[in-house]
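Section 4.2 – Deliverable D4.2 (structural model, holo form)

The reporting period included a commitment to supply a predicted holo structure for the target in complex with magnesium ion. Inputs used:
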Amino acid sequence: MGASIQINGITHRFSGKGPNVLENLVFDMAAGRSTALIGESGCGKSTLLHMLAGLMLPTEGCVRINGQQVTKPHPEWNMMFQRPGLYPWLNVRQNVALGLQFTGKTEALAQRVDEMLALVGLSDKGAARPQDLSGGQQQRVALARSLAVEPDVILLDEPFSALDAFTRRNLQLEVRHIAREKNITLVLVTHDIDEALTMGDSVVVMGRNPGTFQSVMNIDLAYPRNPIDPKFAKLREDLMARFKHSVEGQPQARQTSFDAIANNTNKIKTPAHERPLDQNNGRSSSLPLNR
Ligand SMILES: Nc1ncnc2c1ncn2[C@@H]1O[C@H](COP(=O)(O)OP(=O)(O)O)[C@@H](O)[C@H]1O
Ligand SMILES: [Mg+2]
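Output (structure tokens):
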């Protein structure tokens, strides 16, 4: 399980003569790693995530998962949204089973659903209707449904932002833990710096108008991460500074030991997908890959 993801020189416009919403994005994610994308509202995070999910094609460039160009959704690349998207007329078990049914993985279905409900701590809620559960429990059901198909990739679009702080933190820790156990590649879109630091092996800071990758920070902290750890606090400060620069459109002022900054992303003239693959040791990323 786990799959590598390459973002290969993506530029996107929603209409022919419209502005670039995303511009020359280049980044590699190794299988089983977690990348948090952080940026202001409107910088194109959701648009990019939809491209990773195969729900939308970029105007230029492409996404590759395990080397294969993404042109449509795949059942093992799962997307989780801010709202859990459960069917109110189905009970929790039936909702969890849906992904398995769609993908035809119906062998030992009842047992698989039991395992998933146990994994997310909802063994006693199988017969309940989703609308009778709390917001956090509903997101757990959505998570169980995603995990049931043994995905290689989970794409999370601000999935915890509607939850209270306590539930949010528990789910952040649990999702990261489960993904590590199962070697699932995670891409997390967020505008919450602590969430990015709690869940990401790397944090990519995006700028807007057009959406670009401004800098990348490797988060070299053990899991589970604790926001009151002084190293966490130091990283938060560093990330805040980068975030501020990205918002103000200033060049990166300061480089730190975590640096894997590539402000040169926008200077690349030839889109990465047009360059031979053996350039850069077979990879096309100008942003260093964090392994
Ligand atoms: N379907 C669409 N048509 C035209 N513009 C869009 C569409 N979807 C998003 N946009 C624009 O693209 C930009 C990026 O949007 P989005 O990816 O939703 O940003 P984020 O998720 O970072 O808040 C915004 O300016 C938004 O208005
Ligand atoms: Mg969004």
